[in-house]
Amino acid sequence: MGESPREILERLIAWVPAQRWDELPNLYAPDAVVEQPMGLPGPVRIEGREALARHFQSAAKLPLQMRAANVVIHETADEEVVVGEFDYLARNTSSGAEFTVANVFVVRVRGGLIVQSRDYSNQVMFAAALGRLGALAEELTGSTV
């Protein structure tokens, strides 16, 4: 038997701030589905390990340093499903702005790989810290703020 769902989620939470972008896709099944219902400007659905690899490569280009804090993992009645609550304490390396992003991940792990994840993150904080709030508001409303 592979690693437990809890161990896989703990690794995911730790590897993002460690910027292990090339290794992160290996935590996912080839046909994994990741949904970000609170994505901006709208919900995001990423299907498959290859699409996740592209997603992580895009993240690698962002001027961010992060560390995980306040990590709480909840095991559920479904042995495949774990829920992680945590914060990423972050800093924009270009501007020096510091910020906190609250997260809740609901993850299904089968055979030691993530097969499904619903990631709820405070995307507005990322947008603000990266100087994208004005552009985001324009995308959402169709007008300049």
Main attributes of the structure:
145 residues; 6-stranded mixed sheet; alpha+beta; Nuclear Transport Factor 2, Chain: A; 6 strands
Please provide a written account of the structure:
By secondary structure, the protein is of the alpha+beta class. It has a single domain, classed as Nuclear Transport Factor 2, Chain: A. Helix content is 27%, strand content 41%. It contains 4 helices and 6 strands. The protein has a 6-stranded mixed β-sheet with strand order 2-1-6-5-4-3. The radius of gyration is 16 Å and the shape is globular. The relative contact order is 0.21. The mean pLDDT is 94.
Radius of gyration, taken over Cα atoms and rounded to an integer in Å = 16 Å
Count all strands and give the number. Answer: 6
Shape: globular
SS summary, helix count: 4
The profile of the biggest β sheet is: 6 strands, mixed
- Enumerate the spans where pLDDT stays under 50 for 5 or more consecutive residues: none
* End-to-end separation: 54 Å
Strands across the major sheet, in which order? Answer: 2-1-6-5-4-3
Order of helices and strands: HEEHEEEEHH
Structural class of the secondary elements? alpha+beta
Strand fraction equals: 35-45%
* CATH topology value: Nuclear Transport Factor 2, Chain: A
Return the CATH class.
Answer: Alpha Beta
Architecture (CATH level 2) name: Roll
